[in-house]
């Protein structure tokens, strides 16, 4: 059997990563499957660990990497492999607070059933993802779940800046933490204009508060932003919330997130395409796959691609 590498964020999900890692290691030992475990120690460390694995790949037979952690850890590993033009299949064992990737593609899978896809069934699933090109920095990246600007980025900022000993950080994760910080983000509502090019059609959106390019119906740990998105459609979904005043935003978010009601056309925009370019002139907070990005202008082009997983 070929050698397995495990990249594990044991701090993910308030320590859930360590539990998931132990389950995975115990199950692999039952099958006498050899593995090497590498644990992350800081944000971005999984990028370095993936690069180390690739550098050693010539010395070992490598056909799979196991990722234990949240969507942010998975994002870093997939992005690093894509930049290296590698398509080594990934076994993803979700252990984060959001886990929107697992919720979309393998909601009922356990650690054991996921590992069985590799150990027994040899069943690879090719998952559609987005590849992004930043025209300002000339860098490439991937999007597994969503790339969001404005209110979505502000909520993630509020989640990340909660005190380490805060009640909500200790006892509320994922969807609940996101919803709690929606209220805090309302007072910091941005208003910005967006230029979209969707399959060669140019669209101008004015007075936006949120725009998200989505590969999954979910964000923030299971919050469904739009009823229009179907994950298996293999398309880039674009959802925008616009022309909303702070006093009306909470009512609108309640309609979307709790009542599952699509807002009136005055406040809601949806389109989809195989290639999307987005331009935002003013610096704006944003997030990709639940990880906060630097506040900056945006000029990005997203295209469809895919990646192999054992799910």
Can you give keywords for this protein?
alpha+beta; globular; two-stranded antiparallel ribbon; Tumour Suppressor Smad4; 13-stranded mixed beta sheet; 311 residues; 9 helices; Rossmann fold; 2 domains
Whole-number mean pLDDT: 90
CATH structural fold name of the largest domain: Tumour Suppressor Smad4
Global geometry: globular
- The number of helices is 9
What percent of residues are in strands?
Answer: 35-45%
Task: Give the gist of this structure.
Helices cover 31% and strands 37% of the residues. The chain is an alpha+beta fold and 311 residues long.
Walk me through the structure:
Keywords: ATP-binding, Kinase, Lipid biosynthesis, Lipid metabolism, Nucleotide-binding, Phospholipid biosynthesis, Phospholipid metabolism, Transferase. This is YegS/Rv2252/BmrU family lipid kinase. Its cofactor is Mg(2+). One of its GO terms (molecular function) is kinase activity. It comes from Globicatella sulfidifaciens. This protein is of the alpha+beta class and 311 residues long. It has two domains: 121 residues, Probable inorganic polyphosphate/atp-NAD kinase, domain 1 (Rossmann fold, 3-Layer(aba) Sandwich), CATH 3.40.50; 174 residues, Tumour Suppressor Smad4 (Sandwich), CATH 2.60.200.40. The protein is 31% helix and 37% strand. It has nine helices and 15 strands. Strands 1, 2, 3, 4, 5, 6, 7, 8, 9, 12, 13, 14 and 15 form a 13-stranded mixed sheet that branches. Strand 3, helix 3 and strand 4 form a beta-alpha-beta unit. Helix 2 packs across helix 3 and helix 6 packs across helix 8. The protein is globular. The model has no long low-confidence stretch (mean pLDDT 90).
